[in-house]
Design a protein that fits this description.
This protein has helices spanning about 35-45, 70-85, 85-90, 125-130, 140-150, 160-175, 195, 200-215, 230-240, 250-260, 275-280; strands at about 25-30, 55-60, 115, 135-140, 155-160, 180-185, 220-225, 245. It is about 40% helix and about 15% strand. The N and C termini lie far apart (about 95 Å).
Length: about 290
């Protein structure tokens, strides 16, 4: 009787590559409301996961920008205040004294490689900035929604007040994600109440809203306000490991880092062509 022999099997080695270059990246985080502590909270939330070589600078809209963005008018007013106040921060060229001149000279050196609008909405500042700068621009709502779409089958949004529920659901349709959404659930709080109310109550209302979304089928829950940045862990504990809780400030920065490292910029051959060139053609020297 002959003994059977077997050929030992080994798992073939897979090819790998390790990065060795980390060129510096500078991102401008723009809080389009005029409440400074919200900007600080966003920056603080980034510290644990910010990649080496990446610097994020915070900008707070100057008054008379609204203290919170809770409706369409707030969005328009804050965008107008921001776009004018941002000019000195966009380019190193001291001769660019008017926004109409931004990008007019190829020698202008941008101060920032990318821009994150820290308002959970389809904020008008996002498209406005894309017309004025060449670096990628992203809002925290689209960042959170795109991340949730990649991570799960159905997404939902924890919102603040009732009007935000409607606006978020409208924006989700505008981003083409309605088929993957169970909608938004409100917490009954205003934006600034996320800071001023007792934090246990804030967490409880947010967790309750998240549970309702999970009950409707969401496996990814987006935190629907920049003022919610500190609540991801608490909401995650309530909904459990099977549900991903997505916070748009953090994923927004990571998305922008990836776009910059890939050398991608805002496309200027279509709807985001320079608005400054249009102003010059019609002889408008102001914004």
């Amino acid at each position: 009787m002959s003994a059977s022999t077997s050929t030992p099997t080994t798992t073939p080695a897979l090819p790998t590559i390790t990065g060795s270059s980390l060129p510096p990246i500078s991102i401008l985080l723009i809080n389009p409301n005029s409440t400074p502590h919200m900007t600080t909270a966003c920056l603080t939330s980034l510290a644990p996961t910010l990649p080496t070589g990446v610097t994020v600078t915070g900008f707070t809209a100057p008054q008379p920008a609204p203290s919170a963005i809770e409706g369409h008018l707030d969005g328009v007013l804050s965008a107008a205040e921001c776009i004018r106040a941002l000019l000195p921060y966009l380019h190193d060229d001291d001769e660019s004294s008017e926004l109409a001149e931004v990008g007019a000279r190829g020698t202008d050196k941008p101060k920032y490689d990318a821009f994150l609008v820290a308002c959970f909405s389809a904020h008008p500042l996002i498209a406005a900035l894309r017309e004025e700068v060449s670096g990628p621009v992203m809002g925290i709502m689209e960042a959170a929604l795109y991340a949730a779409r990649m991570l799960g089958g159905r997404l939902g949004v924890v919102a603040t007040a009732a009007r935000s529920v409607v606006m978020h659901e409208d924006a989700i349709r505008g981003y083409g994600l309605a088929g993957y959404s169970v909608g938004a659930e409100g917490t009954g709080m205003g934006v600034l109440e996320l800071e001023t109310l007792e934090q246990g109550e804030v967490a409880g209302r947010m967790c309750d809203a998240a549970e309702r979304l999970v009950g409707r089928g969401a496996d990814c829950v987006c935190l629907g306000c920049a003022g919610m940045v500190g609540m991801r862990e608490k909401v995650g504990e309530r909904v459990g490991d099977g549900v991903q809780v997505v916070e748009g400030v953090g994923v927004g920065v990571q998305f922008l880092v990836g776009l910059v490292r890939e050398g991608l910029r805002t496309g200027k051959g279509g709807v985001y062509a320079s608005a400054g060139e249009g102003r010059r053609r019609r002889g408008q020297g102001w914004v």
